[in-house]
Amino acid sequence: QVQLVESGGGLVQAGGSLRLSCAASGSIVNINAMGWYRQAPGKQRELVAVITSGGSTNYRDSVKGRFTISSDNAKNTVYLEMTSLKPEDTGVYYCNVWGVTYRGRYDYWGQGTQVTVSS
User: Which of 67, 72, 60, 68 is nearest to 22 (CA)?
Assistant: First the structure.
C-alpha cells in the first residue's frame, strides 16, 4: 500500500513563502518522476512543477523563478519551495508520483494540502 503524505500548506500574505513536502511510503519502485499539481476553485488541476529521478526539472511559466522543486530520492520525498507568493497561487496542491513496472505505468496522488495567499 503506497501512501503520499503532504505537509506544509497554510495561509500566507502575498509576497510570503511556504515549503511543501510530500513523503511516499510503502512499496514503491522505479519512480520516474515526482511532481506537484494544484487546483483552484472552479478550475482544472494543473501541473506546477516536476522533477525526474535524474534530477531534471520543469515548471509552469507562471511559477518560474519563484518556485523550486527538489527531491530526496533515498527518502522518496519531494519538496516545493514557494517564494514571492501571489493570490493566484491559491489552491489545493497535490503531490504526484509516477513510474513504470512490468505491470505498466502507475500513478499515486496525495490527499492535497491547501495553500491560501491573501492580498
Answer: 72
